[in-house]
Amino acid sequence: MAQTIEATEEKKAKKRKIHFNYPWLSAAIPLVVLVAGLSIAHPRFLTASNLTSILLQAAVYVIMALGMSFVLMTGGIDLSQGSLLALVGVVSAYIVQNFHSIPLAILASILVGAAVGAANGTVISCLKIPPFIMTLSTMYLCRGLTLVITQATPIAITNDSFKWIGGGSLLGIPVPVIIFLIAAAVGQFILSYTATGRYILAVGSNREAARLSGIKTRWNECKVYIISGIMVSIAGIVYVARLGAAQATAGQSYEMEAVAASVLGGTSVLGGEGGIIGTVMGAIVVAIIRNAIILLDISTYYQQMITGAVILVAVIVDVQRKARAAKQVD
After folding, report:
1. With the C-alpha atoms ordered 122, 128, 132, 137, is the resulting torsion angle positive or negative?
2. Cα 254 to Cα 83: distance, rounded to the nearest angstrom
3. Is the pLDDT assigned to residue 125 strictly greater than 60?
4. Domain contains 106
């Protein structure tokens, strides 16, 4: 009898361990359910053109969510992502149209993103301003600067080589998909095989313990915002290259899509836990939800409601999972 009870408890412990060690399961399950359900609900869902459209839509979400995941792992948040995407898009479009240099446009965009990220990270880590307040301020600053530069007038892009970044293909694979796969691979390498990845998770788990163990908590906290800025820059380039124009209103609420993708993928809003595979899956889930709204002819007014519900459910699951993990340790 005792052996039976012991064996049962051991099986339960293994299940809990699997769920804790593989948080991406929280994105894999809804992904499978959505794909199965929509395959039945609409005949066009599994067509090659629709799946390609989903991946193209997901590309921007994935790249932004990768940056957001690193920030969330430290217990922070970056609300400036959507506005920064618009600013970077305008910078890249302006340079391409006026200086006809794609390398210069890409370099300038990445520098702008890194600079905004560094400003966020420095103020948050050194002046101890809450991430929510600092990045909220940066969100308005970036959006306002974008409006000032453009005067709310779109910048059309006529350079076909630049537009290839957003709409071309290589060996039959869309370029945006290749870019997000490379970005995900780099993110996975940083998180799993470098000291920076371990330090980021350590800072998010217990900042004071990380500091006492010799980790430069301020620098590592600053790093994640720089990473976020660079990722948004890459996403912004893909975004405007795909649309063929830069707009001051671009990227509105995209930071919330990035949060939803990250949290769905198992990155904890409380910090100290996260993964790249889950983030990619979470971003694809967000893209599928947007696609489903169009396919099923649901009013786009419901889109933000659905995104909000997804974030709420994902956070509740995350908090409950963390609470169960804490009980296991106790």
Report:
1. negative
2. 9
3. yes
4. yes
- Give the list of residues 6+ apart from residue 83 with CB closer than 8 angstroms, or none: 138, 139, 140, 141, 142, 143, 146, 251
Full residue range of the structural domain in which residue 316 is found: 45-322
The answer to whether residue 149 is domain-embedded is yes
Classify residue 165: in a domain, yes or no. Answer: yes
Domain tally, the chain: 1
Q: What is the pLDDT of residue 34?
A: 87
pLDDT: is 298 or 218 the higher one?
A: 218
Res. 148: pLDDT tops 80: yes
* Burial bucket for residue 20 (CB in 10 Å: 0-12, 13-18, 19+): middle
For the entire predicted model, the pTM comes to: 0.88
Q: Is residue 235 part of a domain?
A: yes
**What pLDDT, on the 0 to 100 scale, is given for residue 258?**
93
In this predicted structure, what is the pLDDT of residue 325? 63
Note whether 67 and 81 are within 8 A (CB).
Answer: yes
Q: Strand pairing partners for 247?
A: none
Q: How many residues does the chain have?
A: 330
Q: Cα(123)–Cα(121) distance, rounded to whole angstroms?
A: 6
b/e 61-90 (16+ beta carbons within 10 angstroms → b)? bbbbbbbbbbbbbbbbbbbbbbbbbbbbbb
Q: Within its chain, how far is the Cα of 26 from the centroid?
A: 16
CATH at residue 96? 1.10.3470
Q: Which two tokens stand for residue 81?
A: 């992502």
As a whole number of angstroms, the distance between CA 116 and CA 233 comes to: 10
pLDDT of 139 > 90? The answer is yes
